[in-house]
Design a protein that fits this description.
9 helices, 44% helix
Amino acid sequence: MRGSARAFDKVVNAAKQLREAGIPFGFIHTLTGETWEHLVWLADFASQQGACLLQLHPLEFVGRAVTSMHAVLNDEASLAKAYLLCLAIARRYSGSLSIQLDLLHRDDLANRPELGYADNQPQIARSHAPPQCLSLIVVEADGSIVPISSGFSRAFRIGNIASERLAEALPRFLMDRYGVFRALCREMFEALMAPGGPVLFNWHERVVEWSRSSKMSEAQLVVGEAS
């Protein structure tokens, strides 16, 4: 996937240096429709290298995946197999290696809608905001700051670090656009929970797609700011 015959050796060497320096580290693996078969080996490898985390992130339909990796995109069957394997692997390495699979089961989201920012919206004070209001932001290549994941609709952009500090941009976003962001997440939650919805899904990928296709346009955001 990296297109380099030296990539794996670099990973092993970097892990050795981190281990010897006493710095905790983890591995992130891009899960594909083929690599779920190697999850047991990956967990063994991560444990032997001294990692404290193995994060498994499903291949998303962006970048090179769009042009040359259609054959290895995940389908429902491969995601289900990976999900079940991760449950077994997590039990095996409980207490020594954390296994993080970037998938949500619809039952988990239904029982804990706050995982997808779809619960009752917390009150935002101008002076401060609870950490759970927005636990993840991303800085894109042009300096744009967006919620959750790269590619999120620019209608929900928090700001740009090239022109202002995050400490200035984030409070404004929380006051003016956070409510519409939460409404977007709730809209997607209801779509996922509808009869016939997917059982397993990459929530980050889904919410990015939803932000770009939802009817919550820039005009609606302006209305949200005015209210």
